[in-house]
Design brief:
Elements: E1 3-7, H1 24-33, E2 43-46, H2 52-56, H3 61-70, E3 77-78, E4 84-85, H4 89-109, E5 114-117, H5 139-151, E6 156-160, H6 167-173, E7 179-186, E8 204-209, H7 215-233, E9 237-242, H8 259-276, E10 281-285, H9 291-306
Parallel strand pairs: 1-2, 1-5, 5-10, 6-7, 6-9, 7-8, 9-10
Antiparallel strand pairs: 3-4
Helix pairs in contact: 1-9, 4-5, 7-8, 8-9
Length: about 300
Amino acid sequence: MTTRLYSHDACLEHDTGPGHPERSDRLRAVRAALDADGFAGIERAEAPAADADDLARCHPGGYVEQIFELAPSDHAIRLDPDTVMSPGSLEASLRAAGAVIAGIDAVVAGEIENAFCATRPPGHHAEPGRPMGFCIFNSVVVGALHARAAHGVQRIAVVDFDVHHGNGTEAAFRNDGNLAYISSHQYPYYPGSGAATDTGVGNIHNAPLAAGSGSAEFRAAYRDRLLPALDAFKPELVLISAGFDAHARDPLAGLELDEDDYAWITAELRDIALRHADGRLVSTLEGGYDLEALAASAAVHFATLMA
């Protein structure tokens, strides 16, 4: 059994314009880190494109149609103050969602044990009916609902350690007790959601962290609250929204994590996947805006998945 890397050059063509933090250089940095000698033998695959039916499991058909219609051919537009759509953005978004779907298909089939999707744009802020926070389609939710529809997987958990709360994922999962959403994030902070009192139908587990929190607070939140909740849920499939912007070097937030913290949480999540889900785990890139920290963190995350 092995770990597979999914990516696609189309994800570099999502052009957010000068000065935008969610830029193509992010993906270039991650891919360069995973091209290092230590990863020479890894299995790599091109991300396929999701289709409208895949997306419609998460997003209403009218929303999907609107995004397809808005997709520009020769200029960039803004879907909200933060979210840019350029001529290359639609295919990039389809490849990002398609990577998660392909990873799930492969782990369910037993071809691989786990996968990492090095794609962009990110997805966890995209709510069922609106784009938000750099995100157009919610790739991890699209993947979770594909796992249910295509493979009959019932108990699916998304663990999100991005510094920003994944409001879109929580919104999609809130009323479904067979879908668990587990998040650590800086709070109060963008997008303003993710209070500890937000519990859905007992399936939402938020661990808000104050600005300045570091390794001790992060690990305590997982040891004391989030990992026990995930273990008790007994997921048949673990999905990770792997944002690396809680790193101390990141310019967009105020948590103080480092690469050791990402290795630690990845190992913990892999252990739970091995215990309950035959190791079936798919991780997808969310945030991370300091290129050096992002590259180093993604590399240790992937190396730990391979361990």
